[in-house]
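Researcher: Here's the sequence for the chain we discussed earlier.
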Amino acid sequence: MTDTNVQSAQTEQESAVLLKRRAQGVTEIVLNRPDKRNAFDDVIIQQLISAITDVDADSETRVVILRSEGKHFSAGADLGWMRRMADNSQQENLEDSRQLARLMDCLNHLSKPVIGLVQGAAYGGAVGLAACCDIVIATETSSFCLSEVKLGLIPAVISPYVVRAIGERQARRFFISAEVFNARDAEKFGLVHIVCDDIDAMNTRCDEMLQQLAQNGPEAMKAAKSLVFAVSHKPIDSIVIDDTAHRIADIRVGKEGQEGLSAFLNKRRANWIPESN
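Model: Thanks. This is the structure I predict for it:
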């Protein structure tokens, strides 16, 4: 992806999901249905999966931003999609749900750091998208809701990620109550990392985070993300201890690790840091 405004399979006018270059090494995945509050359906889910797959494979992308156009991050499932699903068979619903589950898995395990920018409402499946991002920045007016039980449904396929993000205790409350909670509460629960005054401040804070990440080895960031998955919720036994020892030994002798150590010891800039930083 070398264009300054890279798009997924369809043109910008046709596509609800866009790929854009924000800066060198930074690609944005953009939900582009502001008139529908960026609600998603089966087609958009597939576009998101394709976009994530593309940026994961793109050697020029070091950091990914997930964001939306308009006033709201996403209202969750599209009403038309929900109507269609209501008329579908159990098997059709199963196949449909597996696609949403695949989206969450692809985003959660995207090998590069993912920054989520959340403005306005993030409801239903959109809370799952936020939970799958590595760093989430929201505005003071952002609001979150796991609203599925209001429709007689449950937040099933997003639940593993949301429970990991906010913990079992908060999940038990908000899965059942469908209460709306604000950005400050989301920050306390662990779903959001940074809360900003408004969208402009959110974008400024995002740029600051990008500068922070630009200091770090791209392969090391991938390895660090993989490390979290490798040790999370596992007993600290001989298997985990040996695995972590192998991981640090491997990265120390790797090309990037050697460069980083050399740069540090010789008090010079590592070769992955842009000149502008």
